[in-house]
Amino acid sequence: MKKLRVLVLSDEIDRALYDHFDRSMLQDIDMIISCGDLPARYLTFLATMFNGPVLYVCGNHDEKYVTNPPEGCICIEDEIYEYQGIRFLGLGGSRRYKKGPFQYTEVQMEKRIHKLWYPLWRKKGFDVLVTHSPAKDHGDGKGAHEGFPCFNRLIEKYRPSWFFYGHMHLSYDANTPRVSRLGDTSTVNAFGKYVVEVEVPENGDTHRSADGDGGSQLEQ
């Protein structure tokens, strides 16, 4: 079974990928995905140095994306992006805690999901959920770091193979798992950088079982 090697990022620049960049670090990577809260210049740099697609959703600290989004990258907010038969659904932003873009109440996030009913029906679901915030009671925190219950329901209904999210710095809690499970879905906290292998469907079959052992950290 062919696998797509995906480098997921969020919340903190990895100096090895920026200040000390070496092209060999990306030679086995097929796609880069940002789960938010990363400077546009960082993603633009990676898109310049990388031959594959660079996807992103917005974090609550990405206000500058409104006027100066990352160049050469693909925003997948509120849409399903398909690559090699794998369907990626993007829903960025965090819990609303102040005025500003990319912050939502539970009701507002639910409405975003509801508006996706047609592409979800047309694409027959999705394989990878990409968000900034975690799901409720799954690697989340309190207040502005509380997860969205509507993500839990979305995952329960469509049973994607993978759920990539950010927002929760691993430094917040040393016991926070990098990779976990939510029902049938493998979940990854993308803080910093992490590599995941996503199965590429054969014969158009996009309904794959989740593989909790598909991720491995890049060497520093």
Report what the structure shows.
Residues 15-169 form the Calcineurin-like phosphoesterase domain. This is Calcineurin-like phosphoesterase domain-containing protein. The protein is an alpha/beta fold and 220 residues long. The chain has one domain (3-216): Metallo-dependent phosphatases (Purple Acid Phosphatase, chain A, domain 2, 4-Layer Sandwich), CATH 3.60.21.10. 16% of the residues lie in helices and 26% in strands. It has helices at residues 40-49, 106-114, 117-122, 149-158; strands spanning 3-10, 31-34, 54-56, 74-75, 80-83, 86-91, 94-95, 103-104, 128-131, 162-165, 179-182, 185-189, 192-199, 215-216. A six-stranded mixed beta sheet has the order 4-3-2-1-13-14, covered by helices on one side. Strand 2 (31-34), helix 1 (40-49) and strand 3 (54-56) form a beta-alpha-beta unit. The radius of gyration is 16 Å and the shape is globular. The model is unreliable at 206-220 (pLDDT under 50).
Describe how the helices and strands are arranged.
Elements: E1 3-10, E2 31-34, H1 40-49, E3 54-56, E4 74-75, E5 80-83, E6 86-91, E7 94-95, E8 103-104, H2 106-114, H3 117-122, E9 128-131, H4 149-158, E10 162-165, E11 179-182, E12 185-189, E13 192-199, E14 215-216
Give a quick summary of the entry.
It contains four helices and 14 strands. The chain is α/β, with parallel strands linked by helices and 220 residues long. Strands 4-3-2-1-13-14 form a six-stranded mixed sheet, covered by helices on one side. It has a six-stranded mixed sheet with strand order 5-6-9-10-12-11. Strands 7-8 form a two-stranded parallel ribbon.
